[in-house]
Amino acid sequence: MMMTRLPKTLTLLCLLVLAGCSNPETPQEVTQAFWEAVIENDADTAAELSTLVNESGFDGFGLDWTGAEASWGRVVVEGEHASIGTTFTGLQATSGEALETTTRLIRINDRWQVDYHHTADEINGDRRLESLMGSFRDLGESLRSRFADESEQAAQEMDRLATEFATLAGQVERDISTLVDQYSQELQREIDAFSRSLDEARSQNPDASADDQRTLDQARETIEDQKETLEREGSDAAAEVSQELARVQQQLLELSGQSFDQLKEELANWTRQLNRELESLNRQAREQQEGQ
Question: At 39, is the secondary structure helix, strand, or coil?
Fold first, then answer.
């Protein structure tokens, strides 16, 4: 009897040991298992591995994870808290661009769990930054296709600075929301200046064609709408506002005749001013990186 029972007992013990070993324990294991669950839309497992009370709180961070793949970067463990650099590819929300973010974890009762809401803040912040930098790149490309000579160089410089800031921001693990807020404030000042330029162009060209007058009026209305959006939503709307301004500039560059050359020069000045602001952001991002 002992010979027949012993193998079954050993088998059961082995199964229990294997089951225990399969449970994620380290921050790295928990992170990997958690994101596998998120990508597979497994709310139960995601809730079990995170600080969510139950699966009803799982929202997938508001993203479609179909086809996404995750990879891991730097791991930092400080007492009861940990952070792991996390990069996703294949996300539709980022139009194929990689999303670099941070998974935050906390140890509760000797068990590591993904800090769901803190991680959500990281993702939303990184998506906002990526959207903002994408707007800068789009703006640089649109200006480069329209301007010539010095203005073209300014647009190229904007594109370079935007790319540099995106790279630096991805390497800085401290909160960069302050830098984005700074850009938002500068953008608001530039909108005011740009709005005044439009008013001057309108008043100085009373004999402009009906098409040009309509273009100016539409641009003025759009800029006022974007100013209100920026005042209401702050830096969260900076990317959207930047995109709209790029579209308005393209429209204004269609103005006919030499009478609007001054306005077009104002567009070049606007680009150069944002270049200076970007250079300042890059410097601060580098300082944060060096201070880590």
Answer: helix
